[in-house]
From TrEMBL, chains A, B:
Protein name: RibD domain-containing protein
Residue stretches making up the Bacterial bifunctional deaminase-reductase C-terminal domain: 10-191
GO biological process: riboflavin biosynthetic process
Classification lineage: Bacteria, Bacillati, Actinomycetota, Actinomycetes, Propionibacteriales
GO molecular function, one term: 5-amino-6-(5-phosphoribosylamino)uracil reductase activity
InterPro entries: DHFR-like_dom_sf, RibDG_C
Source taxon at top rank: Bacteria
């Protein structure tokens, strides 16, 4: 059976995956780019932007696992656009005409709209569905490949709580945001169903992998 | 000038340094001993209990730094006893007649009582004081040696917020407690005043050191 995976989910030391005050000009609120500097510096990220260069150390070793084997993504409404994007019929995501997904991409929203075909293989589908229903649809669209849960944190948390995630990679950044949206709320005893392995890299990031126990 | 240090402060992945429901038979609430298993296994901890054996790897390398150079400890009322100990005139801490402090030890409480001299060099002093006042008194008692802030988490947080801590070692344990007392609340941007270095060990613990920037 194909797997449901989370990659490159960055959190602060105090557990916030996004800051306070998300807006069009601040997708991560007061966190700015600080949660993702480690990722932006990697060769993986450079290549996504058709740039050469970037680091090839351990951080890149985690980052590059984002795409291989993935056949569909599921994301929350909060990742797709700033608060209120549902009122803008022309909103097509943050990522321009050729988004970095290159697969069917399911956006969870209580106000679905018709699907949008983008360049590069990404098609946006809008779903009002439970996590389990969304996984079933995405799995079908992925045609045997894996499904990535793209975030944000409340979506990842919901899918974790329902036991729908097989593998998760979290990058813990040594900053304290103090406020925002926490990843870990309501996930008591997650270690009973996942093998958790931490590894710190010389850039100060601690990568945590969660592998579902069978 | 002598330093103010924190050692072996254990937290869960979701940032709780103690669980919910602290009581006489459960000093760390529903966390039980899970936050401290890494410490109990070390040669340092065995030696404190006059036992031989224990691990000598990286975890022990952090653990053993607890005592050298320390001339006094400051702890909160919540570390000294279960809720309500102030109503028991005979309460002398959790640690028996020969406590593991071996120095003057200051307990912060709004209901001070006369000092108690224990075996092995520990004398308990009870202080109704601000963090800065407590550090001044402990520093004097330490006679040039360093002062350890012994916890619990709200006390460490208060001293951090006032910029009174020079060095802190936190051991992050890969479990999710879900509830209890958080260490990180109200400490936004702590990375601006501390150099933070994480290192994960093969036991799954991530040790984080905070060194005040000068």
């Amino acid at each position: 059976m194909s797997e449901v995976r989370v990659h490159n989910l960055s959190i602060s030391l105090d557990g916030f995956a996004t800051g306070e005050g998300q807006a069009l000009e601040a997708p991560f609120g007061h966190a700015g780019e600080r949660l993702h500097e480690w990722l932006v510096g990697t060769r993986f990220f450079h290549a996504e932007d058709n740039l050469s260069g970037g680091t090839q150390g351990a951080d890149n070793g985690f980052a590059v696992q984002h795409n291989p084997g993935i056949g569909a993504e599921i994301m929350g409404a909060g990742k797709f656009g700033p608060p209120g994007w549902q009122d803008d019929p022309d909103w097509k995501g943050w990522w321009g005409p050729n988004p970095p997904f290159h697969t069917p991409t399911f956006i969870l929203t209580h106000r679905p709209r018709p699907s949008i075909e983008m360049e590069g293989g990404t098609t946006y589908h809008f779903l009002d569905a439970t996590p389990a229903e969304a996984v079933a649809q995405a799995r079908e669209a992925a045609a045997g490949a894996d499904v990535r849960i793209g975030g944000g944190p409340t979506v990842v948390r919901d899918f974790l709580a329902e036991g729908l995630i097989d593998y998760m990679h979290v990058a813990q950044v040594p900053i304290l945001l103090g406020r925002g949206v926490r990843l870990w709320d309501g996930l008591e005893s997650l270690e009973q169903t996942y093998t958790i392995e931490p590894v710190s890299t010389p850039t100060g990031i601690t990568h945590l992998t969660f592998t579902a126990k069978r």
